[in-house]
C-alpha cells in the first residue's frame, strides 16, 4: 500500500508539475499543426471548446484580410491581417499556415512578424518540434511554418474582436493554387481548456497573378527639344516604360492612361495627377498635361536651380528616382520635325511647303513669332501651374533676360519675349529675320544668359 501510495503521489506530482508548462505553452502560442490542414493535428478544438462539432457555431468568426484579393504574386510579400471576433470572448489566439493546394504537406512561403503579438514557428512533418523563427524561412529539417499569437497577443480582457498583422511572402515561383488555413480560439479567459472557449476556422484559396509592372524612368528631358535642360516652370518630358498602367496607346483614341488633360481635370486647379499618375520634381508635384506608358509631359513646379530628383507614381507604385540638373535658363524651341515652330503674322507656319503643307519660309526683314520653353524668369513673376493671365491679369509677363537669337549664324533682332497669356510655360518670342541670313534651311539658336538651345534645329528663310 505504501508503495502504491507513493506511486500515486509521484504521478500526481508529475501531472501537477506539467500543468503550468501546458498552460504557458497555450498562452504563448499553440503547438504546430492546429490550423486544420488535412492529416495534421486538427485545430484548436483538439484542446479547447466542445470538440470539432462546435467549430464555427458560437456566433463569431475568424477572417483574413488579403490585400491582393484571392491572388498572390510569386516572391512578393503581402501584409495579412487576421481578425477574430466573438460576442463573449476575453482572451484570444490563432494559428495560420499556407500550403500548396496540390500537396498540403508542402509549405507555401514564409511568415514574418511585424509586432509583438505574433510569432513564427517551424516544425517537421511529425509536428514534434516547434522552433521559433524570425527570418521567414525554415530549415530543411523543419520545413513547415506557422504564424501564431504570442503571450502578449492573447490580450486578456479585450472583448469583441482582435486583429493580428504579419507579412507573408509566397514562393518565389508560381506554385499553383495555395490554400491558407487559419484556426482561432476565442477564449473566456479563465485559463481552462473548457466549453467556454470558442473555436473558429477558415480557409482561403489563392491563385498566382502576374507581378504588376513598376514604372521605370529612362530619361528626363526638355519638353520642347527632347535634349537635356529643365528649369522652374518649363515643359518637361519624362520617358520610360510602364509610366501608366495602360498596356499601350492608340493615336486619336484617348482613354485612361493614354490622354492629355481635359477641362474636367481642372476642378481643383491645374491637375497634378491624371488617372492616378503623378510626377514629383525636386519633391514638388508637377503639373501633368499628357500621360502614356512611355512618355509623360509636365510643367515643372517652382524648383530651385541644382540637382533635383524626378519620380513617377501610378497605381503600380513609384518609379526609380532620376536626378537631373535644373538651371535658371533652359531655352528650347518647340519643333515640328527638325524645324522650330514659328508663325507668320497671319498665324501660318514658317517652314518649306514641301515639308508642311500650307507653310512658307520667312522673308528677310520679316518679324515672326517663335514658340519655346525654358527662357528664364519673367516680370511680373508667374508661378508654375498658372497662366500669366491668371496670375497677373491683362499685363504681359516679359522675359527678364530676352534671348539672343541667331539664324544661320547671323544675329536676329529680338523684338520681345513674353509668356503667352493663355498657356502654361509657353514663351512667344518676336524676332526679325536678319537681312544677312542666307536662303534655305538655316540653324536657329537661342542664347539665354549663356545657356543655348540645341544647334540642330532649323529655320527656313526665303
From TrEMBL:
This is IPT/TIG domain-containing protein. Residues 1-27 form the signal peptide. Keywords: Signal. Pfam families: TIG. InterPro entries: CHP03437_C, Ig-like_fold, Ig_E-set, IPT_dom. Residues 231-325 form the IPT/TIG domain.
